[in-house]
Predict the structure.
Amino acid sequence: MAESTQISIVIPPEIHMADILGEGDELLKLMEKSFDADILVRGNNVSIKGAAEEGQAISTLLTEMIALAERGERLDTDVVERIIHMTQAGKCSPSAVLSDVILTHKGRPIRPKTAGQKVYVDAIRSNTVTFGIGPAGTGKTYLAMAMAVDALRRREVGRIILTRPAVEAGESLGFLPGTLFEKVDPYLRPLYDALFDMMDSEKFQQLMDRGIIEVAPLAFMRGRTLNDSFIILDEAQNTSPEQMKMVLTRLGFGSKMVITGDITQVDLPKGVSGLRQVRKILEGVTDIEFVTLEADDVIRHRLVQRIVTAYHAYDEALAGSSNG
């Protein structure tokens, strides 16, 4: 039989109880649904009665929620669900993750929202080259973009270079109709969309016109040396080994590079993905870090996380049956 415990936590008087319990006690109900313990609220005192492990988890959860509320963070069901998940995983401090604001645009903070995303952001800060590998919706490109914009604002770099392979056009863009910009625009549009979330369109256009922000297909990187730059290679699973080596060797002095991709979504018509191969070659090299993001790090619609998990389970089952 599990050992029972009773824990009492006092919510500081400067914090409104509604900030912790939620409107109509929605956050309290979420806590009760997530843990097998009784939670009793009297005034600003919260009593927890149940198995020792569950009681301690709720105590940790409330401590983290109080820390975020004291910093002025708004707690809603989405945020508290993430805190609960991180608390149950026990890998990190949720308040440390959710208070790591990379930059703020129009009053909206951009920051990691999961433990994996926090590891990824810290890796970018600490290393010259960082690989972010994981499924769609884990924030690989978006967070890298935020780090690039922040580095530019802090004048840590002089320009941002965003690139991705135009695999659907086979990197042979000549046969497509229109100007060069019109030809490559569909492949680069997701990068523009992320940038528009982080700066005003007028400011973005000024930086583009001055060459401080450059968005270009991967083929345009050949033969260049990229100094004083924050370089992001997106959709790197669609690079060949030769293209991956080419872009890595473009790295110049005072630069930082982030390479993102999902090795389960390779669109190359044939051959080996450069992203799949590069880990075998460079893992363990100083100042290069590989970060793997998982389904738990998906921030899109909740159903996307379930879809990613289901596909992962299917692929594992398929691999197991073929090996058997």
